[in-house]
Design goal:
This protein has helices spanning 6-9, 20-23, 36-44, 53-58, 65-73, 77-85, 91-97, 101-104, 117-130, 154-166, 182-185, 194-206, 223-229, 258-270, 294-305, 341-344, 413-419, 447-450, 455-476; strands at 146-150, 169-174, 210-213, 232-235, 241-242, 255-257, 286-290, 310-314, 348-350, 353-361, 364-377, 384-388, 394-397, 400-403, 407-409, 442-444. By secondary structure, it is α/β, with parallel strands linked by helices. It folds into 3 domains: 6-130, Orthogonal Bundle (Fumarate Reductase Iron-sulfur Protein, Chain B, domain 2); 146-240 and 408-476, FAD/NAD(P)-binding domain, CATH 3.50.50; 244-405, FAD/NAD(P)-binding domain (3-Layer(bba) Sandwich). The longest helix is centred in the last third of the chain and has 22 residues, at 455-476.
């Protein structure tokens, strides 16, 4: 694979970001791209390891990473593209948004730096689009069966694309104005510009997939209608119920969920209407983001671009170490301190902090009452829980609070109840090993059944559901 001594000859090279003073003034993608010569060298670093953990324990869609690295190193771009697309429907999404667990599992990472797999993947798919290697290829033969996919996020798109290529008639229903789900409305443009999403949607349309937007299933159309017109249904509505915080003052104005904030900005950029009475903007405000994950980082970057006066991010978990702890060995995902481009653009961060109350004036939030916590186990060997440290209370001034603490379930209560779907113990839609729900012929994919997870895992779930649906339909013929 690659060059036998490549990982010894070449150091890992990151593409880096556009200059901070430039990128903070627009919403274009912040990450740069590797030059072609750098790309060959990075692909050459893929060593001929005995067991490629990158595709085994690392990649949820089981990308055949050593092989496409080798093809990229040799300049065989069509072969590299064919290998990549054989396992990943949307490398242009994962190449931009995946945290790359494959790199964490790279064998080269034991004693040196891992291969830049994500950048190689992104370069392969983008070269494919640029050089005309990717064009509409509708199925030559169609079966008679029709499948409805509810939701057009990464899982729903993966279900639709996989089944369409297998020769099934696919209609995707999406309640928003544009298809894409989280990709369209949750991911900021500075991480992935929406023309990338629409490029893929247009390709899927050209290949025969029908998209029906502005349609709320369960309200605008019923389950009975779907069952009468489709031979199978797949629900891929995501994990949409945000985790809230139950403290005094929560009802004050100026406290919003992250996805409401992010979706509004994406709509502004794409030209969709946002009613002025519902506008959430950070301009000239002291912003506090509660939640230390990727969504919190997205809120930081968006707030800074809107002209926030200051941004503070609070995380209840303790500050991670800068180096991998001994109890967190390779090839597991390294739990270490990470700094996104948004953090580097101007943000203060505090760890091991809990919010005790929101304090307001004239019904609007003005302060947070917080305290430091320490994580201890109630019983030896039991789970660690946060406990407030006496005498550590403090207050933060704020004009805007954004809650970015993750999600607790599907949130599609009306649809789930109307369809009569069973839930599991975590409140997600219950599914069997085939990803069929408790209702015959209705399947589910992505976060709706697994809970909040990575985009690449949603794609993997969508591919699995598509295979199960194809098997189910073939058995009924």
């Amino acid at each position: 694979m690659g060059k036998a001594t490549g990982f010894l000859e070449y150091a890992r090279k990151e593409p880096g970001y556009r200059p901070e003073d430039e990128r903070r003034n627009d919403y274009k993608e912040v990450e740069c791209r590797l030059e072609e010569n750098d790309l060959y060298q990075q692909a050459a670093r893929c060593m001929d390891c005995g067991i490629p953990f990158c595709l085994g324990s690392g990649c949820p869609v089981s990308n055949v990473i050593p092989e496409f690295n080798d093809m990229a190193y040799k300049g065989r771009w069509q072969d590299a593209l064919d290998i990549l697309l054989s396992t990943d429907n949307f490398p242009e999404f994962t190449g931009r948004l995946c945290p790359a667990p494959c790199e964490a599992a790279c064998v080269a990472g034991i004693n040196t730096e891992p291969v830049t797999i994500r950048q190689i993947e992104l370069s392969i798919i983008e070269k494919g689009f640029k050089d005309g290697l990717i064009c509409p290829r509708p199925p030559v033969h169609y079966f008679n069966e029709r499948v409805a996919v509810i939701g057009s996020g990464p899982a729903g798109l993966a279900v639709a694309d996989t089944l369409n290529r297998a020769g099934y008639h696919i209609t995707v229903f999406e309640e928003a104005e544009k298809p894409g789900g989280l990709l369209q409305y949750g991911i900021p443009d500075f991480k992935m510009e929406k023309q990338i999403v629409m490029r893929r949607i247009d390709l899927m349309k050209a290949e025969g997939i029908v998209f029906e937007t502005g349609v709320r299933v369960g309200t605008d159309i019923s389950l009975r209608y779907l069952q009468q017109h489709f031979d199978a249904i797949c629900l891929a509505c995501g994990s949409r119920k945000p985790r809230d915080i139950d403290v005094p003052g929560r009802d004050l104005k100026g406290i919003y969920f992250a996805m409401d904030f992010l979706a509004q900005q994406n709509k502004r950029i794409s030209g969709e209407a946002v009613h002025s009475s519902e506008a959430i903007v950070a301009t000239d405000k002291n912003v506090v983001v509660i939640g230390g994950g990727d969504t919190g980082s997205d809120c930081i970057g968006t707030s800074l671009r809107q002209g926030a006066r200051s941004v503070m991010q609070l995380e209840i978990l303790p500050k991670p170490s800068e180096k991998r702890p001994v109890q967190n060995p390779w090839p597991t995902w390294p739990v270490i301190l990470r700094e996104s481009h948004a953090h580097k653009e101007g943000c203060e961060r505090r760890w091991a902090v809990t919010t005790k109350a929101f304090i307001g004036s004239k019904n609007a939030v003005k302060k947070l009452q917080c305290a430091e916590v320490e994580w201890r186990s109630k019983n030896p060997g039991g789970p660690m829980v946060p406990r407030e440290k006496p005498g550590t209370e403090f207050e933060l001034s704020t004009d805007l609070v954004i809650l970015a603490m993750g999600f607790t379930g599907p949130g599609n209560e009306e649809l789930i109840q109307n369809f009569g779907l069973e839930r599991d113990t975590r409140g997600n839609v219950k599914a069997d090993p085939r990803q069929m729900t408790s209702v015959e012929g209705i399947f589910t994919a992505g976060d709706m059944t697994t809970g909040q997870s990575l985009i690449v895992r949603a794609i993997a779930s969508g591919r699995k559901a598509a295979r199960a649906i194809a098997s189910y339909l073939s058995e009924k013929r």
